[in-house]
Amino acid sequence: MRYILRKFGLLLLTLWAAVTLNYALPRLMPGSPADAAVAKLSQNGPVAPSTRAAIEAQLGVPSGSWWHQYVQYLNTVVHLRFGVSYTFFPQSVSSMVGQALPWTLMLVGLVTVLAFVVGSLIGVAAAWRRGTWLDSLPTLSGAFLAAFPYFWTALLLVFFAGYVLGWFPTSGAYSADAVPNFSAGFVRDSLYHAVLPALTILVTSLGGWILGMRNSMIGTIGEDYVTFAEANGLRGRTVALRYAARNALLPNLTGFGMALGGVVGGSLLVEQVFNYPGVGHLLYSAVTNHDYPLMQALFLMITVCVLVANFIVDVLYGVLDPRTRR
């Protein structure tokens, strides 16, 4: 219990620091949404100070000292009220995040879990059968695929599978004439559109899980408890999964916690290439348009999910390996 409470206290301290940075960083960026709007209006002539003040009031640009704005921001965080989006005015930040988050969870979340499970199992098999084709084939393939950047793989799939072969659509999350609902037809259409972006994330991330699990597994195979289990006549599958893989999984579990926490941030480059309406695409729009409320809400959501995922991984560490509690 002391171990969990200590980790929880560290979580709260880190969360406060993250919220403070989330408040300060957007305000350190040059320019503002009001400056962008005034720049567009100034093309037709000088803009009066009263017009600028009206634009700031309409956008809800915060006023007063930094400390006053900081207290207001903490109040909005506690009550989960992030105001109106500057980019998509007059829609609220909560509604914009609510529209984008399901697409990201469906695409990036499911693919991340699938890549971790499949990659870890392949890594276990490769290490247990090291020196054979079952080891060399996935190891070489994983190293080759891991070297490809996300956006490069996405562009290759768009060109060959989208334009040349015409197998899959190249952009969007569903057809232009489709109406979002929970019908079987819409689900099939959205899954059809998600094939290429999902394949991009799976192909580029699978190699890292394979190599990480294989290297960690090889280190645990030589431990005394694995040798003792083999000497007792246990089946190879039991020794590999219940003895060697359980301890070898810990380093991969840390990476999985980071990846799972970052799922809500979407895959920015992949979503940009495929024009996928996820959180990454929304974050790009917020940054390019200096949309402070939307940026802060997205950054805060990503930060909280990463911290919570790491806290859960720390607790699982204590369960899987009691030595870490000391």
Short description:
With 326 residues, the protein is mainly α. It is built from 13 helices and no strands.
What does this protein look like?
- This is Putative peptide ABC transporter permease.
- InterPro entries: MetI-like, MetI-like_sf.
- Its main location: membrane.
- Keywords: Membrane, Transmembrane, Transmembrane helix, Transport.
- It is a multi-pass membrane protein.
- The protein has 326 residues and is an all-alpha fold.
- The chain has a domain of 193 residues: MetI-like fold (Orthogonal Bundle).
- Helices cover 75% and strands 0% of the residues.
- The chain has 13 helices and no strands.
- The longest helix has 38 residues.
- The protein is globular.
- The model has no long low-confidence stretch (mean pLDDT 76).
